[in-house]
């Protein structure tokens, strides 16, 4: 399975809640290119994010195209319909050329027994690869075969609208309760191949917590072993099942996971594998930092966003309960924040773990608090535009210095 549209070896998913930072984001990839590293930008936005901020999928394409034109970017770039399913894909069909098929809700749903038996008959124990037995294959097929079939249904809808080979396909299994083991990943990839899905990236759930906007919570050494095992599984699956040669791992909620970036980098260096690192809300947080550092009305807007997020924390946190850990007692009161200087606000929010003023609880609350800015509407967007220099500088520095340079350079 090969594609006319092929995702490069190293790619970087960039989220932009309010479609204001496309040029600043692309500038980070341009800095890498100037140093000889090709990091392909992928602008990603989910249906949930569009619904919260009141935007439509074509706005992401417009932002990406405008940024590319402004910076004279001549390398590939993509627009990702992030975490779509059969019920949400329609609005993305024309504007996106990268589709993340989210099948997490289908994991654990039982496929037809005859389909499971046929899968086991077809693949057996995969020759005992990765410790698989026929019993393990059957158990994994019961758990994951329906999800693969669901991915097939979504893929075929996209293919019918856009044509084969004209888009990048990613399959996402990460938003589940339990991580996939390497042998389960092999079964998943075999099932995707059976569905004739030319997946170019696969996003499994890894061990540990990938909370929004903060560092990885878990054992980096265990993550590294798991990551290397998954790379080996992908290499085997490409050879055995005819999946695209550029198939690679995708790390979701990958922004700010500083403690595992060395592991990812070592794994790529030792195996020659690529990676897709998907980020999202880290850019929105840099907007707030940029507003604060601009002072005056910008700082006042940043303080207002925090006050409203604090007042509506339960509502804002509910959809993200599985991927945030906020200790409410460690959140400063809005009255306290209102007395902060620009430096105080930026120091509390910026992800600098060496700064004693950094507050991971505040950062997580504001990460999920973009709904507040969405409700503020044009008043928020006007302030972002007025503080463009400060905001853009922070966005670019964050993506390049704390993300791209640490993983890819």
Automatic annotation (TrEMBL):
<keyword id="KW-0413">Isomerase</keyword>
<dbReference type="InterPro" id="IPR032586">
    <property type="entry name" value="UxaE"/>
</dbReference>
<dbReference type="GO" id="GO:0016856">
    <property type="term" value="F:racemase and epimerase activity, acting on hydroxy acids and derivatives"/>
</dbReference>
<feature type="binding site">
    <location>
        <position position="83"/>
    </location>
    <ligand>
        <name>a divalent metal cation</name>
    </ligand>
</feature>
<dbReference type="GO" id="GO:0046872">
    <property type="term" value="F:metal ion binding"/>
</dbReference>
<comment type="similarity">
    <text>Belongs to the UxaE family.</text>
</comment>
<feature type="binding site">
    <location>
        <position position="212"/>
    </location>
    <ligand>
        <name>a divalent metal cation</name>
    </ligand>
</feature>
<comment type="function">
    <text>Catalyzes the epimerization of D-tagaturonate (D-TagA) to D-fructuronate (D-FruA).</text>
</comment>
<dbReference type="Pfam" id="PF16257">
    <property type="entry name" value="UxaE"/>
</dbReference>
<keyword id="KW-0479">Metal-binding</keyword>
<feature type="active site" description="Proton acceptor">
    <location>
        <position position="82"/>
    </location>
</feature>
<feature type="active site" description="Proton donor">
    <location>
        <position position="170"/>
    </location>
</feature>
<protein>
    <recommendedName>
        <fullName>Tagaturonate/fructuronate epimerase</fullName>
        <ecNumber>5.1.2.7</ecNumber>
    </recommendedName>
</protein>
<feature type="binding site">
    <location>
        <position position="252"/>
    </location>
    <ligand>
        <name>a divalent metal cation</name>
    </ligand>
</feature>
């Amino acid at each position: 399975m090969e594609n006319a549209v092929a995702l490069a070896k190293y790619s970087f998913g960039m989220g932009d809640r309010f479609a204001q930072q496309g040029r600043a984001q692309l500038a980070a990839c341009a800095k890498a290119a100037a140093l000889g590293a090709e990091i392909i930008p992928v602008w990603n936005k989910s249906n949930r994010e569009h619904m919260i901020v009141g935007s439509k999928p074509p706005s992401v394409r417009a932002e990406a195209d405008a940024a590319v034109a402004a910076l004279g970017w001549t390398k590939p770039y993509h627009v990702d319909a992030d975490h779509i399913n059969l019920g949400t894909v329609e609005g993305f069909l024309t504007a996106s050329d990268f589709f993340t098929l989210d099948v997490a809700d289908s994991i654990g749903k039982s496929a037809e027994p005859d389909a499971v038996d046929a899968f086991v008959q077809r693949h057996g124990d995969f020759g005992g690869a990765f410790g698989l037995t026929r019993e393990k294959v059957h158990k994994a097929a019961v758990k994951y075969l329906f999800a693969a079939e669901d991915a097939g249904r979504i893929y075929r809808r996209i293919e019918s609208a856009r044509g084969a080979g004209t888009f990048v396909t990613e399959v996402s299994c990460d938003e589940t309760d339990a991580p996939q083991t390497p042998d389960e990943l092999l079964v998943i990839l075999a099932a995707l191949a059976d569905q004739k899905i030319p997946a170019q990236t696969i996003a499994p759930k890894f061990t540990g917590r990938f909370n929004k906007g903060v560092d990885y919570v878990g054992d980096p050494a265990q993550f590294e072993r798991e990551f290397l095992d998954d790379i080996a599984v992908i290499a085997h699956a490409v050879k055995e099942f005819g999946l695209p040669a550029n198939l690679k791992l995708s790390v979701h909620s990958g922004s700010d996971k500083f403690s595992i970036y060395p592991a990812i980098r070592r794994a790529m260096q030792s195996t020659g594998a690529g990676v897709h690192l998907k980020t999202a809300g880290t850019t929105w947080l840099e907007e707030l930092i940029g507003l604060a550092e601009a002072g005056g009305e910008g700082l006042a807007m940043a303080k207002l966003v925090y006050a409203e997020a604090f007042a509506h924390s339960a509502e804002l946190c509910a959809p993200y309960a599985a991927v945030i850990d906020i200790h409410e007692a460690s959140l400063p009161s809005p009255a306290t924040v209102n007395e902060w200087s620009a430096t105080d606000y930026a120091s509390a929010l910026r992800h600098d773990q060496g700064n004693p003023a950094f507050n991971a609880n505040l950062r997580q609350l504001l990460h999920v608090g973009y709904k507040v800015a969405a409700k503020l509407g044009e008043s928020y967007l006007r302030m972002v535009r007025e503080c463009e220099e400060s905001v853009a500088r922070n966005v670019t520095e964050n993506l390049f210095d704390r993300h791209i340079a640490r993983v890819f350079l």
